[in-house]
Amino acid sequence: MYKSFSMELAGRTLTVDVNRVAKQANGAVMMHYGDTTVLSTATASEKPRDGIDFFPLSVEYEEKLYAVGKIPGGFNKREGKASEHAILTSRVIDRPMRPLFPKDYRNDVTLNNLVLSVDPDCNPELPAMLGSAIATSISDIPFDGPCAMTQLGLVDGEFVVNPNNAQRAVSDLALTVASTREKVIMIEAGANEVPEDKMIEAIFKCHEVNQEVIKFIDTIVAECGKEKHTYESCAVPEELFAAIRELVTPEEMEEAVFTDDKQTREGNISAIKDKLAETFAENEEWLNLLDDAVYQYQKKTVRKMILKDQKRPDGRGITEIRPLAAEVDLIPRVHGSAMFTRGQTQICTITTLAPLAEAQRIDGLDVDETSKRYMHHYNFPSYSVGETKPSRGPGRREIGHGALAEKALIPVLPPADEFPYAIRTVSETFESNGSTSQASICASTMSLMAAGVPIKKPVAGISTGLVTGDTDDDYLVLTDIQGLEDFFGDMDFKVAGTHDGITAIQMDIKIHGLTRPIIEEAIAKTKAAREYILTEVMEPCISKPRESVGPYAPKIMQIQIDPSKIGDVVGQRGKTINTIIEETGVKIDIDDDGSVSVCGVDQESMEKAMDMIKIITTDFEAGQIFVGKVISIKEFGAFLEFAPGKEGMVHISKISKHRINRVEDELTLGDMVKVICLGKDKMGRISFSMKDVPEEEK
């Protein structure tokens, strides 16, 4: 028999059905928020997976187009691989959940969220996030929860909890915050230059709402929760640690990791592993655990160096940024390029401009968003970290980093009516040693400006890290973390923005949450670092967008026509518009409101196409001058085509000032002639005269 639980959340009813469906999963709930329905399940394998040194958690967010009454596009008519939006939602669910599982748990766990129906005013991401937390909390899977998630908007200066569709469309903030009972555990934000103090207020507004949701979850767990099962711990035995410390002293390990060169450090650690492997050659059990044991030894050494001695592995100060460099125009012939280097992290971003018709089409659950004009793609090849492996396309990490940079830059992009281009930026990772996503934001800003995209303000990004001790007050926030500090630290807090405010946040942590002082200090340190990067590095390289797009970028001219004339421009079965395109080599986009964009590289061809469109859409009046091509000759006159699909006639009496007996005496097929419009004749045809063209026009 199933049970149903309900609470009021932001003016709408949240209902959780337990034991109604999917009873063979370890935990399952049917989530209802408005008319949005999501099935969330949590399942775990009976035994740990052999040969791994990590927790194998998989989070899935499945979008089914029946949820919004659509049939998938394409030939197959079946949902294919997960959309980017689904991948990003899975990542947002994963990030707060993962730290709450035991660190030595090696059983496979899958959290699956199936979107069954979508109410546009109730974002399905929210019940999916809450559903994963509830399903895991009531299951027998070890989990130090519950946690809760809240979304927040900022409309006309006021916070809106879990905004509806209309509010999301005009909000200056899209914030998602996850919390445990005491602390904030995950932050994801996109914002229109929201000031730091307002952002902190918003984060803790979400935290307050999360506490109410956690109380609700507690009532469900109290009635329906299963006893947590025992599991086989995969922690490294203390005897192995003791044996390693006898062979490699803490001072030797500190010396091995204390260097600013990643390759040198890896070589030092490799030598230590070889030494230990030789010593433990006859102990197969210890050999299998050696990699994990050395990793843990490094971690303890680095954390002690930072927290107790305030020494960073590369010798920097706590707030010191690695050496920075910036340049533009390093790639010839592309529309825009820039490279940003921070220590051993190096990103090159290339910008490409195209007509709006090349915007990306989106086939997803969002009923309003069907395309996006700005696309940011991020690539992370194996050579960037000195490894060799085949390229298999972007993974979830690459998609997530690209989306973060895209989110950070969208607030400063010009609107389409001011800059009618589809824009694609591609960030190529040349070197990686920490926080490539934030270097990508810096490189992309400069690349956009180099391409002549009139962005409102430059955007920079930086990441802070964290090392904590035994109490909430024992911690150290680090500016500009490198890879080692990310691996062995407790936090990766990424913040991007302009001089005036934040445009994006992404926070990943490995502990059970952050206190308010830590969050405030992290945001303050990212602001100071961001100001330095903008002022001292990026702006000296390129201070403002170029006045025009580059010579190899397409040029776009725009005109507004009467929407009732769109059919005249398109012509029957597209004949007219295709003729214009064939004659001029341009691309033409027409919107339903009558906005026409002509795109091409050659200015003369664009102007010719624009003139044709103007002629086609003009209401003809006597006295207008045109140039036409003779397409037909009759005894009584000649027919001219003066624009694709537009014809008129010159009567034989209007061809020349002197009397002629035959039209062929003056005109031949294909002649280009200048004529003046006389209006329409009795048959409704446009009538022209050659002989009455003013001398100055001839």
Keywords:
about 700 residues; Ribosomal Protein S5, domain 2; alpha+beta; 5 domains; Arc Repressor Mutant, subunit A; six-stranded mixed sheet; eight-stranded antiparallel sheet; elongated; about 30% strand; 15 helices
Binned strand content = 25-35%
Mean pLDDT comes to: 91
CATH classification class of the largest domain: Alpha Beta
How many extended strands? 29
CATH hierarchy: architecture of the largest domain: 2-Layer Sandwich
Going by CATH, the homologous superfamily of the largest domain would be GHMP Kinase, N-terminal domain
Largest sheet: 8 strands, antiparallel
| Apparent shape | elongated
Q: Which ranges are low-confidence, i.e. pLDDT below 50, for 5 or more consecutive residues?
A: none
Subcellular location: Cytoplasm
EC number: 2.7.7.8
Catalytic activity: RNA(n+1) + phosphate = RNA(n) + a ribonucleoside 5'-diphosphate
Family: Belongs to the polyribonucleotide nucleotidyltransferase family.
Give an account of the 3D structure.
By secondary structure, the chain is an alpha+beta fold. It has 5 domains: 3-150 and 205-224, Ribosomal Protein S5, domain 2 (2-Layer Sandwich), CATH 3.30.230; 238-307, Orthogonal Bundle (Arc Repressor Mutant, subunit A); 324-466 and 517-541, Ribosomal Protein S5, domain 2; 555-617, 2-Layer Sandwich (Ribosomal Protein S8, Chain: A, domain 1); 625-689, Nucleic acid-binding proteins (OB fold (Dihydrolipoamide Acetyltransferase, E2P), Beta Barrel), CATH 2.40.50.140. 31% of the residues lie in helices and 30% in strands. It contains 15 helices and 29 strands. The strands form 6 sheets. An 8-stranded antiparallel β-sheet has the order 8-7-9-10-21-20-18-19, sandwiched between helices. The relative contact order is 0.08. The model has no long low-confidence stretch (mean pLDDT 91). One of its GO terms (cellular component) is cytosol. Residues 623-691 form the S1 motif domain. It is found in: Cytoplasm.
